[in-house]
Amino acid sequence: MTPILITDPDHIAVQPFRDIKERDLTGREGLFIAEGEVVLNVLLSPASLCEPEAILIAEKRWETLRPLLEQAPHDVPVYLASQEVLNRIAGFDLHRGILAIGRKPEMMSLDLMLDRLGAKPDERRILVVASGIGNHDNMGGIFRNAAAFGAAGVILDAGCCDPFYRKAIRVSVGAVLRTPIVREPTSGEIVTRLQANGYEVLALTPSAQMQLADYRPSPRTAILLGSEGPGLPQAVIDQCLPVGIRMAGGFDSLNVAVTSGIALHQMAFG
Amino acid sequence: MTPILITDPDHIAVQPFRDIKERDLTGREGLFIAEGEVVLNVLLSPASLCEPEAILIAEKRWETLRPLLEQAPHDVPVYLASQEVLNRIAGFDLHRGILAIGRKPEMMSLDLMLDRLGAKPDERRILVVASGIGNHDNMGGIFRNAAAFGAAGVILDAGCCDPFYRKAIRVSVGAVLRTPIVREPTSGEIVTRLQANGYEVLALTPSAQMQLADYRPSPRTAILLGSEGPGLPQAVIDQCLPVGIRMAGGFDSLNVAVTSGIALHQMAFG
C-alpha cells in the first residue's frame, strides 16, 4: 500500500471527506465517516461487518499508523495530508488526524437475524432493543455495552437515530461497526416477533414491580430500552416483562446507556 | 419574590452570568453556573448542599417556572430577560433559558466526612473514590450514579476535574449539588485513610482476578475508579482489593461512568 499525498483540499479524491460536520446531518447513502485510531482499528479488524473505502490521515501520523494501515485491503486508498490541508478538508480542526470512509453492511431483516441466531440453539443469547433513542451519545454507549457483554445484536425502531453517525461510532469505540444491526418500524412489532422466536423480552422501566437484581435470565433474553424523557409506551411495556433497577430514594434517575450496562452485566453474569 | 427585568446585557447585576463558556475554564472563586430546569430544581431543593445566589431566566419561561422559583430564598434575585438579551449575556444561544449562580459548599476534609459518617455505625455505606477523572461527562455520570445508588460521598484526587463545571453538573442531573465531596491530593493516601476507618476499598480494574459479580460487599465499601486511558496506578491497586467486570471476549472496554453504575448497583443491591 502506497499512500497518496494530497496537497489540494479540493482534490477530487478527498471529496467524500469534505465538510464532515455539515454532512453528518444529511446521511451518506450507505457510507459513514469513522474517526480516530480506536475506530479505525475496529474498521480494519476481522470482526468488522463494514468495508473500508478510503482512509485519510495526517502526514505526521503515517509512521506510527503504518502497521495498522497495512491491514487494510489493497484496493483501499490511503491519503496523506498536512494538518493544515486536513483541517481544510474536514472543515474543522481535526486533532486526531485520522479519518476513514466506510460502507455500512447490507441491512438485514429481523427474521434473517433471528434465523442466523437460531442456528445455534444451545447458546445463551442476549439481544438489545432500542426504542426512540435519539441521542448519539446514548446510542454509542448502548453499542459499546452491547459489545462488552456479548449481545448478539441490536434492534432499532424507527424512533432511533442512526448509529453510524460519526459521534455515535466514536462513543461506541467502534462497536457499531462489529455489531449486527436491524431496523424495524415499531417496538411493539419487534417485541411480538422476538417472543414468537422464544425470547423473553424485558422492558427496563422505573414503573416495574420486579427488580433487575432478582431476575434470573432465560437462555434467550432481549432487553428493551426507551429514551430517558418519555420512556417506553405503556402498550409496549404491557407486552413485556417489566423490570426495574432499584435505586436510592429521592434520586431515581439513570442514564439509558448506564441502564443498558447494568442490565447487560446482570444478564451476562448476574 | 419580584423578578427584575433586564434589558441591557451590560447591566451590572448580570455580570456574573456573562460569557459563560470562556469563564467555565477559569473557575469562579467558590461560585458555579447551573443551567436548565432539572439542575435548578435540585439547587432549590432541601437536598442541595449549595446556596443559590442569583437566577436568570428567559421571560417566556417565567409563568411555568414561577412555582419552582418561589422555593428560592427571599434574598435571591430573579432576573428576567428576553431570549435575545439572554443570549448576549451568556455569549451563546441559550435554548434552555435557565441559568443560576450557586455557591459551592465549604470544602470538608476527608477526616470530617468520615467522622460524620461514623456517627451512624450500623448503616451500610458506600463511598466513591475518583482518581484522575479529567472528563466532565464522565465526572457528571459518576455523580449521577453515586446519587442513584445512595453513595454517601465522592472523594476526588488532585488529578480529577472540577465537578462544579457547568457540563459536569448538567450531566449529573444536579447530583453534584447534593453529594458530599472531598478532595485529597493522592489516591494512595485516600485509600490508606479509608482503610484505617474500616472501609474495604475495591479498585475497579480489568487486571483483577476477582469478578464484581462474585463480590459480596462489606458494610463499609469504597469503590476506586480510574480514568479509561491510563487506568489506576499499580501501587494504588496493590493497596486495594482489585475487582474486575467480566466481559465478552475481544471487546474489553467499558466507559468509566458505566463502570461506576454497574459497580454501585452491585454494591447496593447485588
Automatic annotation (TrEMBL), chains A, B:
BP GO annotations: methylation
SUPFAM superfamilies in the cross-refs: alpha/beta knot, L30e-like
GO molecular function terms noted in the UniProt entry: methyltransferase activity
Pfam families: SpoU_methylase (PF00588)
Key words of the record: Methyltransferase, Transferase
InterPro entries, A to Z: Alpha/beta_knot_MTases, Ribosomal_eL30-like_sf, rRNA_Methyltransferase, SpoU_MeTrfase, tRNA_m1G_MTases_N
Domain tRNA/rRNA methyltransferase SpoU type: 126-265
Name under which the protein is recorded: RNA methyltransferase
